[in-house]
Amino acid sequence: MSEELRTRSQMLVDGDLLIDFPADSFFHMARNRLDFSAVKYLLVTHSHSDHFYAQELINRGYKFARDMRSEILHIYGNAEVEKVFLEGTRREMRPEVAENVYFHKIKAGEEFAVGGYRVLSLPAKHCAEEDALVYCVEKKGKTLLYLNDTALPEEDFYLYLTGRGIKADAVSFDCTLGDEQVSSLRHMNMYDNCRMREKLEKYGITGGFTKYYVTHFSHNCAPFRKRMDSVAAAFGLIAAHDGLEIEL
């Protein structure tokens, strides 16, 4: 399959924690030979359909999915995500599936444990109609900052992470605008990514131990694989691609 094919973004962590659930989720599972039946925890950033396609969850059990490794799924998201979940599953969610799917409504500034993970929900700057989130996920001394979708955050964002003693081993930046020098109140480009990297390092949240990835490219910024690899490298960043595996 062409390396130029880019689908909607999500991340699987250690096989059992998923960040976002777009309409391409089944394709991701099939293409990369992943077992999403093992996923126990789903962190949702916001309700937009490229990040949360709730209707697919009706297939998580009953006769649609057998021999599942984890029948129970815990979903974490804001109030709008909860509304979309209820709307998207109302017509077709079987009771046998619904009884194993639990929704937990959260907001920015919460810290909670899921399995062996420590999760911080952080405020995103993305849309006025809901309080979108980004996440910090920590497990066994390794920490990921997942920053899709968001524009450059306010100062409080860095102060909060510093106050929690966060040292991020990897950062996944929103890079919807690629290397285009245009401003946005909803997304970032590589110039913004570099500005945010400077802030993170200034506050001691990241450093020489950190890997910086860029993803969530719009098709409007010509995100061809070799071009993005080259451009990102010039900024000291790593361009993600479909199926990328990261070990921390």
Mean pLDDT: 95
**Percent range for β-strand residues:** 15-25%
Structural class by helix and strand composition: alpha/beta
Q: Helical content, roughly?
A: 10-25%
Query: Shape from CA axes?
Result: globular
CATH architecture title: 4-Layer Sandwich
CATH class (first level) name: Alpha Beta
Radius of gyration: 18 Å
Overall tally of structural domains? 1
The CATH superfamily appears as: Ribonuclease Z/Hydroxyacylglutathione hydrolase-like
Low-confidence stretches: none
Order of helices and strands: EEHEEHHEEEEEHEHEHE
| Number of separate helices | 6
At CATH level 3, the topology is: Metallo-beta-lactamase, Chain A
Summarize the biggest pleated sheet. Answer: 7 strands, mixed
- Strand arrangement across the biggest beta sheet: 6-7-8-9-10-11-12
Distance between the termini: 27 Å
Give the number of DSSP strands: 12
Protein name: MBL fold metallo-hydrolase
Pfam families: Lactamase_B_2 (PF12706)
Organism: Candidatus Borkfalkia excrementavium
InterPro entries: Metallo-B-lactamas, RibonucZ/Hydroxyglut_hydro
